[in-house]
Amino acid sequence: MDFIESKIHLINDQISSSFQKTNEIGVLAGLSGIALFNFHYSRVFNKETTIGSAILEKCILKINEGYSKPTYCNGIVGFAWVINYLIKENFIDDSNNEVLYEIDDYNHEWIDFSIKDNNFDFFHGTIGYLNYSIDRYNSLTNSENLEKIEKSVTLLLNYLSELLPEIELYPNGLKKYIIKMGFENNVFFGSAHGISNIIFILNKISTIPKFNSEAQLLSDQYITYLLKYKNDKNSDISLFPNFLSKKGVVKYESALSWCSGDLGIGINLLNTAVRYNHNENYKLTGIEILEHASQRSSLDKTSLKLDCLCHGYFGAYKIFSDAYKITQNENFLKASNYWLDLGIKNLTINNDSDLTILNGLSGIGLSLLDHIDSKKLNWGECLFL
């Protein structure tokens, strides 16, 4: 048996025996994301397994017993995203839509609340909720449901239009808003909590014809703001800071990670250019950022100490691997192999292992399934990858 395949089987065995210990149900940090791994595992290895379905049933049982966390990362909307994804990818049949119809109205309420609360976070705010809604938009036919999503999109576009000029004046601006897109009201740039995820959701919104021009224009404006902080002459570690503090401090020391650093920003620009806006300049900028990131291999220049997907070795592997598949750039292949080898060497699988996509074995397992399967696996959509 191939060494990497053996690791994937061990991950699945650990998940099968331990998933009951996980309390949350969201896609990134909960049970439904763990189920996502098992469904892909079963398909890649052509194995019949009931674990994925058992995990989803546990999620439904928890909701029926009063589980109430709404967020994409941890909660009910993240669970709904997984169900919608599994239907779209033909893992489960569309009779499961009945579960989603009950969650859709709940999700609209949280979109409205989080927008009015100025919470534009991907994990725990508007962008996560709306990511699910936009994916649902393409499969819905009921005009009332479509209109609700369009109302939420309109609300978000209006708020983001008003937010941009205040962010541009930061830290002297933001008198009107206390933004919840990061911590302590800092302006973050990365994919988990910052400007990068705003850009991605605007490009997803642009796939809805009536919002195409407005969303693209606003996306261009946010990209212009983002690139203003790209420091090509900087001698520090990264091209982008992790955040701009309320004191105006900018430190170009972001980790080599999906969540907060150059990697997430670079692959975001590359993916949005390839999938949505087809802007060659954005594509080239994304490649340039990733090429710079590919030269960072010593651990003191990466701030990576873990084997996880979010901010660890396997996240770097996944992003460089995706970039190579798009561009055939040999620097990305070399970097992906480097981080894969380091991840495998440091991989620990035991009863104390986190099982989730974001910080644990499911994310690592899905990345390894990418490595051994010649077909494109679309699970990275849950992280805007």
Automatic annotation (TrEMBL):
GO terms for molecular function: metal ion binding. SMART domains: LANC_like (SM01260). GO terms for biological process: peptide modification. Zn(2+) binds at C259, C310, H311. Keywords: Metal-binding, Zinc. GO terms for cellular component: plasma membrane. The keyword Metal-binding applies. It comes from the Bacteria. It holds the Pfam family LANC_like. PANTHER family: LANC-LIKE PROTEIN, LANC-LIKE PROTEIN 2. This is Lantibiotic biosynthesis protein. It comes from Flavobacterium aquidurense.
